[in-house]
Design goal:
heterodimer, A: 261 residues, alpha/beta, nine-stranded parallel beta sheet, B: 402 residues, four-stranded antiparallel beta sheet
Chain lengths: 261, 402
């Protein structure tokens, strides 16, 4: 199974850290979305995060909301998510995490979802609205299948909750850079640096920072202290405005931020 | 254990906290503040005084014999939450949460609203307590409840029309949650119903349970006995839990919640969540919800903006699963007929939401017969619905259309 831990470690050995790129499944179409994800990897993205469109995405800002709403309007079904993972993993070596709100997994069946994701070649799940306290079934299913599970940690998380996120996560902990939702920001909050230090102190093998990162300079800045930088809205916007080529070009630009100067 | 003693985060299999980690600290802060406030006699006294001197509590009960002739001759007694300041039960909850906001030292409040009743109540409390206030309202609702938008603005609130998703209450909640995630240091979220993540279902219920506590005693004083049944409309379910709660352990008192059946539960246009939905996770809690096979939320429909919600509070899902309360759908047409009937027989114009409870009560009265006494929560007044009603019943002059 292709998990994210080894890739993040390797990228921290050979460069400043890992670049993680997000795209929603089914945007602008299933086929183009798969091509775009492959293009990201070809241009330097190390780990992919494929988002499943959901009707009530409380953590997403306007760019990703617009993209996932379009995917839903185009008839996105959960089965498309597994199909996208299968096609992308056939064409690249990058591990593919699925980012999903929790209800679709509950309705599909947590064990069945884990089995089908593993069968499609997926690496695991990022669960923005599932906290470890509510995740007993998912933890059991991911233990059984070997899938990674990425929980979130926030600047406001207490030390006890930081430890809980570290203990429950496998692959990396998603450090929420700033208080807010997805979307590019001019400066990534200093809070991220403190949060990553707290995650390290709590024993996190890897911490990746997301929310607000959109430039190579921000990637480089984040990788000074974190193991990975996660870029979402900026890539989605590039794909929306300029198609697969533009998404690939932005990935190449962002990947410059992972290299030692 | 007595049913009344049940607290969050779980009501049986329902409830919990399915929210981004960024909100957990705020929810914990609120839970702790609420736990301390509950034990503080000063908080209780302050809230009770606001109820007396601001809301107009206790609200009266009114027996409605002319209406009851259409309900199988059963005795029908209305709990008059429509007479509260701001026109509905919503004020009970917002005063409690606004007091808590002061306690935790935040100076800004946000809220979602469907019909606008909770938004108006929150804007009112914000004005009273000197808090900044932003109200999120689906664009569809700002259009059908334009008068309430104006009321909120007059009270000093900033009203944001939400254009995402179905542009109704559920999307207003999403947008309010996004605001909260971003501004949690300064902002408290005054949630309007008994849904959402813990502690909201328990806390909002506790602020609303005064309805049933008063009504239980008032009915005893009037009739010498407990009612045969207690009825209320159910959207998220705050007025229903408010009147049910005092009766939960009175096993001989039947509890009926009436959901919005829209154009009929055999169509796709309804909001009958418990009747037609299945358990899932939405807006921070596990409860019944209207969803497709993939777990995507299905857009609800009701003529009443306040019931137009595809979810329901977890305590209702629990009471339904236990068989302690019964939930039935009432169509738009039946609710509007009941609205007209109460207006004409008793001179009381109910909110369209509350008219669902009245329509359900008419049917229930015929089932239970003339020996029964039915206590109905008249949760709100119909002023805000006059435009909808005028169009529905063609009450505007043709030569002078609005």
């Amino acid at each position: 199974m292709r998990t994210v831990g080894p890739v993040i470690r390797r990228r921290n050995d050979e460069a400043n850290g890992a670049l993680i790129g997000y795209l929603p499944v089914g945007f602008p179409t299933l086929d183009e979305g798969v091509d775009a994800a492959v293009a990201l990897v070809e241009h330097g993205v190390d780990v992919l995060e494929l988002g499943l469109p959901y009707s009530d995405p409380v953590m997403d800002g306007p760019v990703i909301q617009a993209a996932t709403q379009q995917a839903l309007a185009n008839g996105f079904r959960l089965a498309d998510g597994f199909e996208a993972v299968r096609r992308v993993t056939e064409r690249t070596d990058a591990p593919v995490l699925v980012m999903t709100y929790w209800n679709p997994v509950v309705q599909y069946g947590i064990d069945r979802f884990a089995d089908d994701l593993a069968a499609a070649g997926g690496a695991g799940l990022i669960t923005p609205d599932l906290i470890p306290d509510e995740a007993a079934e998912w933890i059991a299913a991911s233990e059984r299948t070997g899938l990674d599970r990425v929980f979130l940690a926030a600047p406001t998380s207490t030390d006890a909750r930081i430890r809980q996120a570290v203990d429950a996560s496998r692959g990396f902990v998603y450090a929420v850079s700033t208080m807010g939702i997805t979307g590019a920001r001019s400066d990534v909050d200093a809070a991220a640096r403190t949060l990553v230090a707290r995650l390290k102190a709590a024993g996190a093998p890897a911490s990746c920072v997301g929310l607000g990162i959109s430039t190579a300079a921000q990637v480089a800045e984040v990788l000074e202290y974190a193991d990975g930088a996660i870029v979402g809205s900026a890539l989605v916007k590039a794909l929306a405005d300029g198609g697969v080529d533009a998404a690939g070009a932005l990935a190449a630009e962002l990947a410059r931020g992972t290299r030692a100067e | 254990m007595a049913l009344r003693a049940q607290t969050g985060p779980y009501f049986g299999d329902f409830g919990g906290r399915f929210v981004p980690e960024s909100l957990i600290a705020a929810l914990d802060e609120l839970s702790e503040a609420y736990t301390l406030a509950k034990l503080d006699p000063e908080f209780g006294a302050e809230l009770a005084e606001l109820g007396r001197s601001y809301t107009g509590r206790p609200s009266i009960i009114t027996e409605v014999p002319r209406f009851a002739e259409h309900a199988g001759g059963a005795r029908v007694i209305l709990k008059r939450e429509d007479l509260n300041h701001t026109g509905s039960h919503k004020i009970n909850n917002v005063l409690g949460q606004a007091l808590l906001t002061k306690r935790i030292g935040k100076h800004r409040v946000i809220a979602e609203t469907g019909a606008g009743q909770h938004g108006v109540a929150t804007a009112t409390a914000a004005a009273l307590f000197g808090l900044e206030c932003t109200i999120y309202m689906g664009e569809v609702d700002t259009e059908r409840q334009a008068l309430n938008v104006a009321r909120m603005r007059l009270l000093g609130a900033d009203v944001v029309a939400v254009t995402a998703g179905s542009r109704t209450l559920k999307d207003a909640i999403n947008e309010a949650m996004r605001d909260w995630v971003t501004n949690v240091e300064t902002t408290n979220y005054i949630f309007g119903t008994v849904a959402g993540p813990h502690p909201f279902p328990e806390m909002v219920r506790d602020f609303q349970k005064v309805i049933g506590e008063e009504a239980r005693q008032q009915v005893l004083d009037l009739t010498g006995a407990l009612p045969t049944a207690v009825t209320a409309c159910v959207g998220g379910g705050s007025n229903a839990i408010g009147i049910f709660h005092a009766f939960l352990d009175d096993v001989d008192v039947a509890l009926y919640g009436y959901e919005a059946g829209g154009e009929g539960v055999d169509t796709e246009r309804h909001a009958a969540t418990i009747t037609m939905g299945r358990p899932g996770v939405l807006h921070g809690a596990r409860s019944y919800l209207l969803q497709d096979e993939d777990g995507q939320t299905i857009e609800s429909h009701s003529i009443s903006a306040g019931l137009d919600y595809p979810g329901v509070g977890p305590e209702h899902s629990w009471l339904s699963a236990l068989g302690r309360a019964t939930y039935r759908p009432v169509t738009d047409a039946a609710a509007m007929e009941a609205l007209r009937l109460l207006s004409r027989t008793e001179g009381i114009i109910p909110a369209i939401e509350s008219a669902h409870a009245l329509a359900g009560t008419m049917e229930l009265g015929r089932e239970l017969g003339s020996d029964a006494t039915i206590l109905v929560n008249l949760s709100g007044r119909g002023d805000k619905d006059m435009d909808t009603a005028a169009k529905y019943f063609e009450l505007y002059d043709e030569e002078n259309p609005r």
